[in-house]
Amino acid sequence: MTISSASYSQSYLDDEEILEIGSKGAEYRADALSKRGSLLPQPDAPLPYSTAKRLVDAKKQSIAREGHEKAAAGKQWDTLLNNSIPKTLPRRQSVACFRIQSGHDFLAKHLNRICIYDSPICTLCLIEDMTSQHLDTCPALQDISEQIGDDGTIWYRKANTYWAARERMAAEPRIRRN
Ligand SMILES: [Zn+2]
Predict the structure, then answer these.
(1) What are the structural domain ranges in the chain?
(2) Cα–Cα distance measured from residue 44 to residue 42, given in angstroms and rounded to the nearest whole number
(3) What separation in Å is there between the alpha carbon of 155 and the centre of ligand 1?
(4) Span from the CA of 21 to the centroid of ligand 1 (angstroms)
(5) Contact 9, 36 (CB under 8 A)
(6) If you measure from the C-alpha of residue 115 to the centroid of ligand 1, how many angstroms do you get, rounded to a whole number?
(7) What is the DSSP string of 135-173?
(8) pLDDT tens, position by position, 96-152
């Protein structure tokens, strides 16, 4: 038994829609049926391999990210989860920015935390704790900031200031063991 298009339409559309279709023609009826059909439960079609692989990879990444977020909660390096350091930076800038963002920056505060320096105070100006934020305002690095000026990206400025601080620290006498 075949179903005519009119009876098929009637079985899936309500009276109001059928009246509206009657006045607008077959094309509108096809659109209405298509729209209605898209809202019905869809059959489980077999997935192509590439789609299945993509879904599995996405789920794996999502599970891994949840694990990383739990492990990083409250840690300084949790900023690395939303890492905004461009992957195309030259190695020198990339290393400096990664160290700054992770907090494992080999500046006095970090070196004090891992028992290499006996004080977290900036060894260049002796004013406050030597963190990556301090480098932006450290008077002993004022010449570097002026030299860099507004040239380059923020990554370029951060990296150059960082390496200048590290070079000056390396030139200091090494007597800071506990
Ligand atoms: Zn300083």
Answers:
(1) 8-38, 86-170
(2) 7
(3) 20
(4) 77
(5) no
(6) 20
(7) HTT-GGGHHHHHHHTT-S-HHHHHHHHHHHHHHHHHTS-
(8) 999 998 889 999 999 999 999 999 999 999 999 999 999 999 999 999 888 887 777
